[in-house]
Specification:
It contains 15 helices and 2 strands. It is mainly α and 306 residues long. It has a two-stranded antiparallel sheet. The two termini are 21 Å apart.
């Protein structure tokens, strides 16, 4: 694991720069609707959610993985924007009363609190479908085969074999009080959180038509990174505050949810996150120094405060 002390400012600057660029692309790709119509209200809710800040970690992973294969920056940014649309849709729906019933997201009222539940559902639906519309556009890549691969892989990462499947497992465990062992929680989080992170890391390789072994290396990196990220999230739910994280905290323990922390304890969970971050970095050996920022991200996800 690299010592991030000397590079933390560079990483923060790079992430902020990508966040600014992705914000500009999202601003262009998510319409304002215009006028006073129902479309305008829906568009306003979509823009409220997707332009409301956040770490933009997944878009950063897209851009950084694409840089390894000399992909055109705007192509990478459009894919990054599509990932952020899909991620934001998942947050909107996750915050709904039927799911986590959250009041805060990114330091602001959740979409259903700011608007209403029906508008929030439709805003999430519209962002999800817009994400695939963006990926299918020739502006992303001139080869339709590449665009189809992006659409297919993101659909799999978001669906029953990915994020949605993991969310269902999480809800079922909570509502039916099913005891989960560490293996089940690992699988749950690999689907719920890790699948979209994996797509974000592999997207650059897809755009760059990379060799299978390099794509596999990025997938392995993403697997360990995603689990480290989730353990850090579980720790923040216990140790963080709403002011720091920008969202409600303490909800997992209040709901008696099985998490990495509830099973392993705080110190073992923190040690496991560090081990996973180390493993993630080792998977990047084929890329040499070109992947240093991705190595720094592995440290960032376990040290972050939000």
């Amino acid at each position: 694991m690299p010592n991030l002390d000397g590079r933390s400012l560079e990483l923060q600057t790079a992430m902020a720069d990508v966040a600014t660029e992705v914000h500009a692309v999202l601003d262009r790709l998510v319409p304002d609707g215009g006028g006073e119509t129902g479309e305008a209200r829906l568009a306003a809710a979509m823009r409220y959610a997707v332009l409301g800040g956040g770490k933009r970690l997944r878009p950063f992973l897209v851009v950084e993985s694409a840089s390894l294969f000399k992909v055109a920056p705007m192509a990478a940014l459009r894919v990054a924007a599509a990932v952020e649309m899909l991620h934001t849709y998942s947050l909107i729906h996750d915050d709904l009363p039927a799911m986590d019933d959250a009041e805060l997201r990114r330091g602001r009222p959740t979409v259903h609190r700011m608007y209403d539940e029906a508008t929030a559902i439709l805003a999430g639906d519209a962002l999800l479908t817009r994400a695939f519309e963006v990926l299918a556009d020739p502006a992303v890549h001139g080869d339709p085969g590449v665009r189809i691969e992006l659409v297919k892989e993101l659909a799999q990462a978001a669906g029953i074999a990915g994020m949605c499947g993991g969310q269902m497992m999480d809800l079922q465990a909570e509502t039916e009080s099913l005891p989960l062992e560490i293996g089940a929680i690992t699988r749950l989080q690999r689907l719920k959180t890790g699948a979209i992170i994996a797509f974000s890391c592999e997207a650059g390789a897809i755009l760059g038509k990379a060799a299978p072994q390099l794509r596999h290396a990025l997938n392995a990196y993403a697997h360990d990174l995603g689990l480290a990220f989730q353990i850090a999230d579980d720790l923040l739910d216990i140790e963080g505050s709403a002011a720091e994280t920008g969202k409600d905290t303490g909800k997992d323990s209040a709901a008696n949810k099985a998490t990495f922390v509830s099973i392993l304890g705080v110190e073992r969970a923190r040690a496991q996150a560090l081990l996973l971050a180390d493993q993630a970095c080792q998977h990047l050996d084929p890329f040499g120094a070109a992947a240093d920022r991705l190595r720094d991200v592995a440290r960032f996800v376990i040290e972050r405060k939000s």
